[in-house]
Amino acid sequence: MKMDLTDTTAGKINKGLVQARRAIGTPAVGMVLTLVVVTDEENAYDALKAANDASREHPSRTLVVIKRVSRSPRDRTKSRLDAEVRVGADAGTGETVVLRLYGEVSDHAQSVVLPLLLPDAPVVVWWSVDAPRDPAGDPLGALGQRRVTDGYAAEKPVEDLRTRAESYAPGDTDLAWARITPWRSMLAAALDQVDCEVVSVEVAGEEANPSVELLAMWLADRLHVHVRRAVSAGPGLTQVRLETTGGPITLHRSDGAMATLALPGQPDRAVALKRRETSELLAEELRRLDPDDTYASALRFGVDRLGGIQSASQRAEASTWTPGSLPVRPVHESPAPAPAGDGDTPRPTPAQMPPVKKADPQ
C-alpha cells in the first residue's frame, strides 16, 4: 500500500503510518530497528531496493531522506516536506517512508527524521552517496548507533579512506569493508590449516579500489609483515598470495564468482567467492550494532602507521599485475621485525589471526 502526502509534517506522516497498517490488517509494529537512508533522487531507486531486500532479514522502518535542490532562488527559501508512505508488499517486511525535503528544511533533516524513529529501537544511518567527512558529527549521523558509508560512491575512493580514518568514531563502518568479509574469513581459515609463519603478502586488485586497500591494511596490521599492493584488471579483488615458511598460500579469483585456494602440500580447491549485491552487504552490517574494532584498527594502521595511502596517480607507473608475475611497487609496508633476542614481539602465528565477521553463505 502506498500513500502520498504533499506539503506535510512529521505528525501527519506518523498518522499515515498508523492508517496504512490498519488498512492492510497489521496494526502491530514488528520491526527491530530504524534504517535512515540518505541519498539523492538519481540513486534513490537502487538505495531503496537494497534497503527493502535487507529488511527481509532485518525488519525495519526505513526512512529515505532525499534533499531536493530548487533551481529558482525564490523557491530555495520555501520549505516543504513531501512524503510517500509504503507498507506491506511495497516495503519489504517493514515499512518505508520516502521523505523529499525542499528549501530550508533540507538543512534540518534531523528535525524531520527524529519524530519518525521507532521508540526504544537502534538507529542505523546509511549514506548511499555523498557521505559527510565526519559521519558521527553529522546531524543525521548523530541519531544513529551505527553509521554506514560506501567508499565506492566517493569521487576518489582510495583517498576517501584517509578521511574515514581521520574522522572515525565507534560505530562507523563502510561497505567496502563488508565486501572483503568472505576474503578475510577464507584467509583466516586457510592459515589455520597449515603450521607455518607468514613472511610476506601480496594483494592484487583493481586500481583505486578501497576494498583492496582495506584488505592490505588488515593483513599488514594483523600479521606485521611486508604487504605489497599489485594492480590487476579485476574485477575487484583478484588475488592474495601469502609467502610462508612452508610454501605459498594463494587465493585467486579471476571471474568475480569462483576462486581457487592453493595450500602447500594440498590439492587446489575451488571455493565460492562471489561479488555480493549491496543488499547483502547492508544486511551484514545490520547484524551487528556494536563498534567494529577490527575495521578501526586496520583503517588507522594503514593511514597513521604506514604514512598514508597512495593515490591512483602515484601508482600510474606500476605495470598490470598478472598471476605469477613479480610484485609491483609496494603500497602498504610495516617495519621489518627485529632479529630474535632483542626483546621485540614475535610475529603472530596463524592461530593468532583475529576473528572476522561471519560471511554470508555462498
Folded structure, characterized:
- With 362 residues, this protein is an alpha/beta fold.
- The chain folds into 2 domains: 2-149, no CATH class; 181-352, no CATH class.
- It is 27% helix and 24% strand.
- The chain is built from 10 helices and 15 strands.
- It has helices at 10-23, 44-54, 73-76, 109-113, 157-166, 175-178, 181-192, 210-223, 278-286, 293-305; strands at 2-5, 33-39, 60-68, 80-87, 95-102, 123-127, 146-149, 172-174, 198-205, 226-231, 237-244, 247-253, 258-262, 269-272, 332-333.
- The strands form 2 sheets. An 8-stranded mixed sheet has the order 1-4-5-3-2-6-7-8, sandwiched between helices.
- Helix 5 crosses helix 10 and helix 8 (210-223) crosses helix 10.
- The radius of gyration is 23 Å and the shape is elongated.
Summarize the structure.
This protein is an alpha/beta fold and 362 residues long. It has helices at 10-23, 44-54, 73-76, 109-113, 157-166, 175-178, 181-192, 210-223, 278-286, 293-305, and strands at residues 2-5, 33-39, 60-68, 80-87, 95-102, 123-127, 146-149, 172-174, 198-205, 226-231, 237-244, 247-253, 258-262, 269-272, 332-333.
